[in-house]
Design brief:
Elements: H1 2-23, H2 27-47, H3 51-65, H4 68-80, H5 84-107
Helix pairs in contact: 1-2, 1-3, 2-3, 2-4, 2-5
Function: Fluoride-specific ion channel. Important for reducing fluoride concentration in the cell, thus reducing its toxicity.
GO molecular function, one term: fluoride channel activity
Main location: membrane
């Protein structure tokens, strides 16, 4: 049963991720998706929901919404292009916004 909940959440998270990619070009979509997933994850953790709902929202929705593989690809491209400062800035901004989003989500 938990698999079905996670798959259902993943459908909606994946759809939102795709929508963000259509609305924002490149790194902005990745940054927005990852930050939003961190916020939702922090919020859900603070609710202390039953395991099925946690699977639906965190493993499913947030897992499909966040896109760490795309982040790795974008960072790898910056490294290949020897754009060290933009790479460090993007990585730092991603982590800073992620931590802030989890914090705010838990306080929301």
């Amino acid at each position: 049963m938990i698999f079905l909940y996670a798959a259902f959440g993943g459908f909606f998270g994946g759809f939102l991720r795709w929508t963000l990619a259509q609305l924002f070009p490149g790194k902005r979509a990745t940054l927005t998706a990852n930050t939003l997933a961190c916020f939702v994850g922090g919020f859900v953790v603070s609710l202390e929901l039953p395991h099925l709902y946690t699977a639906l929202l965190i493993a499913g929705f947030c897992g499909a919404l966040s896109t760490w593989s795309t982040l790795a690809k974008e960072l790898g491209q910056l490294i290949n292009d020897k754009k060290w400062w933009p790479m460090l800035g993007y990585l730092s901004l991603t982590f800073a916004l992620g931590y802030l989003a989890v914090f705010l989500g838990m306080r929301f």
